[in-house]
């Protein structure tokens, strides 16, 4: 399980280099911020409180991630939608 999390973090770091942006709400859009959710997204486990907090913080950035071809395969998945719903954060329609 630790290896899966490490691999996801490395992928997010590599892919996230070009995905940093700023939104009107001044949120620092950085997909690496969602790394606490990697286990829940990849294995369908219950997301942690840390994961839910990060999804709420990054909610305004999700459309940017979904529209990024390098990130959408991780973000725009049934498991990611399930994690967002479990955290009480509606998944955006982009």
TrEMBL record:
Q: Which residues form the Bifunctional inhibitor/plant lipid transfer protein/seed storage helical domain?
A: 21-94
SUPFAM superfamilies, sorted:
Bifunctional inhibitor/lipid-transfer protein/seed storage 2S albumin
Biological process terms in GO annotation = lipid transport
The protein's matches in InterPro entries, at most eight in alphabetical order, are given as:
Bifun_inhib/LTP/seed_sf, Bifunc_inhib/LTP/seed_store, nsLTP2
Q: Does the keyword DNA-binding apply?
A: no
**Keyword annotations of the record:** Lipid-binding, Signal, Transport
Q: Which Gene3D superfamilies match?
A: Plant lipid-transfer and hydrophobic proteins
Stretch forming the signal peptide: 1-26
Q: Name one GO molecular function term.
A: lipid binding
What is the protein named?
A: Bifunctional inhibitor/plant lipid transfer protein/seed storage helical domain-containing protein
